[in-house]
Write a structure and sequence with these properties.
The protein contains 22 helices and 4 strands. The chain has 513 residues and is mainly α. A hairpin with a 2-residue loop joins strand 1 (392-393) and strand 2. Helix 1 packs antiparallel against helix 3 and helix 10 runs antiparallel to helix 12.
Length: 513
Amino acid sequence: MNFKKLGKILGKIMILESMLMLAPLVVSFIYGEEWKYKLAFIIPMAALALMGFLLQIPKPKRDTLFQKEGFALTAFAWLVMTLFGAVPFVISGDIPNYADAFFEIMSGFTTTGSSIIRDITVISHSGLFWRSFSHWIGGMGILVFVLIFIPESNEGSSMHLLRAESPGPQVGKLASKMKVTARILYLIYIGMTVLEIIILMFDKPIPGYEEDKLFISILSTFGCAGTGGFGCIPNSVELYNPFSQYVMAIFLILFGVNFSLYYLIILGKIKTVLKSEEFKSYFTIVILSVALIFISLIWRFEDYPQDYTMEEAFRHTLFQVASIITTAGFSSTDFNVWPMLATTVMFILMLTGAMAGSTAGGIKLSRIVIAFKGIKVNIRKLINPRYVPKIEFEGKQLEQKTINDVFAFITLYFFIFIAAVFFLSFDPVNGEVFTVVSDAGSYQVKHGLLSNLSAAVVCISNVGPGFEAVGPYSSFAEYSTFSKILLSFAMLIGRLEILPVLILFSPKTWKTV
């Protein structure tokens, strides 16, 4: 293990996080907040900068990173970002308990959107900005940004880092150099972010939040871009105007698309994009899901408590499908009380996620498409043992290793999911009854198996709210400290696609080379 090289890059990441905290610090000055809110960022900024510069001093014997080191570095980078990222909440008093703050900022960086905050109105503007900004930071990836600054000579090292952090079974370069690829990805990301902020500003202000129009537009866009889902006003986006809800739904779907396809569109290769198997699967699933849920709502119009018009039923359906399949977790209404068909479809979407190479979480549609093709081939080989399989995906023949990796990932995913549900079953909160107040009225929910099942799924898939006692109008605050830490690491495992975190527990990882 090249510890000095790892320390050097971790130092750069710490300096980067220190610089990123300037943004919420500026927000604190703009809103004239008390000095404790300013110190909440100044203190960790100074500590991060000092430690980061100290880690630059040792000179590594070699400048390259092996694959295991790239994976380990990725996990460490996200842990360091989270450990320090939680500090401002504790110092300011927004979230006094460090375990709760760790859960909240881990949920932010991993773009999960699950929260322990019961009353969002007590959080400072700088605190709200930092938690939503963490979505935008984690959306494209911390190390993708750092890759821009890694020397050209370390091309192999850069590829290991991108492979460890980027979602999907296959990772490639858009250009000849990784640094150029990272720049292209971030330019597209920033461009789409700015565009959404501008469009949202055309909407009329939310009643009661006239002075915060730009602030809310920026934070809402951070959540869409990173497909995170932290709300900045009570009830997520329920109070937003229909125009903003439609705009956010469209951008959520767009941010769920593989960013490589946007690069192809820029190059004028639109036909190639339209031929993409994953692209077609993505939009087919979105359309079918919207149709199924909308029909279920119309069919049961008189049976559920929300008093929707036809337009409202369609808008909430489109928004929730966009929010769930992209694993953003925003909520425009209480889908906890929707018909069984609707909630079943949404539960499936929580598992699948959107496209690989996007900011979304979940298993990813590319893996699901490849898995179905692999199953089809295995069935054909059972029927005809002499059959020579040839599996193609996106116009390229897949190696058997890629197919095996997909099946291994899905197996690991469900193993971790089952383990998380098992450990959550020991939590003292199980069996307690809570009152939920939403647009569906006031009703009681029991914290049971569905709560734990959905909590595990939404954390591993980086979705946000679940069902029952962890639904869109509830929070994760009632879980014990142990469960919150468990779910925090489930978020990290899900965001980093399992292996970069699990590799830390292998003794061979730590052998000095």
